[in-house]
Design goal:
With 253 residues, the protein is mainly alpha-helical. It is built from 10 helices and 3 strands; from the N terminus they run H-H-E-E-E-H-H-H-H-H-H-H-H. Strands 1-2-3 form a 3-stranded antiparallel β-sheet. The longest helix has 26 residues. The protein starts with a helix and ends with a helix.
């Protein structure tokens, strides 16, 4: 009985770590739950239950009596879909019998410790280029392409640095939007930019919570009402923070 209980705990740790990595990296709630239960079933625990919210994971297994239940908190979330894909790959290897629990735990810990995001300079450059392209997509003029790139890159850079000093996401987004609005207005005043609205719209797009909105809708469609509503509320607050930062600047016009 002791060995069975220890094995159950070990399997639960593997499943919880996989779920934690996926949830922290932007995975959908239903995908996290499904992956954890499939992994448990592959290890021989047929009766397992998982309840996932954006801020926590509850997982129980009936492999040993009495039923074991564990809870972990999720305090930080970002977007790293490569980690989600790698965890899915590990889950498939477990299902096919190519990985045991110890090797799976080792690989998951390595993934958790790695920083798979692109270099910071590349992120800023991508945000800058995306801002200019979004401006054109919203029927802006080509002579506003460079101002939009500069404002968008500066806004993303401001968001990252403000978030490091003040770890309140919505406050950082408000300040980043304020920087974008201020730069866009200055470009128009000095004559470098022409269409203020198009420059602002293109520049704020890297800050828009597109993944949050998508995951909220997918969770709601899958029946996960708590997670869907909470992600939707987070997306709304982010949009409100961006709009408020721009509104403060436009008030001075």
């Amino acid at each position: 009985m002791k060995n069975e209980a220890e094995r159950t705990y070990e399997i639960m740790e593997v499943c919880l770590l996989a779920g934690k990595i996926m949830l922290q990296s932007g995975g959908e709630t239903y995908r996290v739950e499904d992956t954890m239960m499939r992994m448990a079933a592959s290890f021989g625990i047929e009766k397992s239950h998982s309840y996932v919210t954006p801020t926590g994971i509850i997982f129980s297994a009936e492999g040993a009596e009495p039923t074991k239940t564990k809870l972990i908190r999720i305090s930080e979330r970002s977007t790293d879909l490569e980690k989600v894909a790698i965890v899915n790959s590990i889950s498939r290897k477990i299902s096919s019998g190519d990985l045991d629990s110890k090797e799976a735990m080792k690989q998951l810990k390595e993934i958790e410790a790695k920083d798979l995001s692109f270099p910071f300079r590349m992120q800023v450059a991508a945000a800058s280029l995306a801002s200019g392209c979004f401006m054109i997509m919203f029927k802006g003029e080509w002579n506003d392409f460079l101002p939009s790139m500069i404002a968008g890159g500066a806004g993303y850079l401001s968001f990252v640095y403000f978030h490091r000093f003040v770890p309140i996401k919505f406050f950082s987004e408000f300040l980043a939007a304020f920087v974008i609005g201020l730069l866009s207005l200055l470009f128009v005043i000095v004559g470098v930019g022409h269409q203020l609205d198009k420059i602002i719209i293109g520049s704020v797009m890297p800050l828009v919570p597109g993944l949050l909105v998508t995951n909220a809708i997918r969770d709601l469609m899958a029946g996960h009402l708590v997670s869907g509503l909470s992600k939707g509320a987070e997306a709304f607050l982010t949009a409100f923070a961006i709009g408020a930062g721009i509104a403060v600047i436009l008030k001075f016009l």
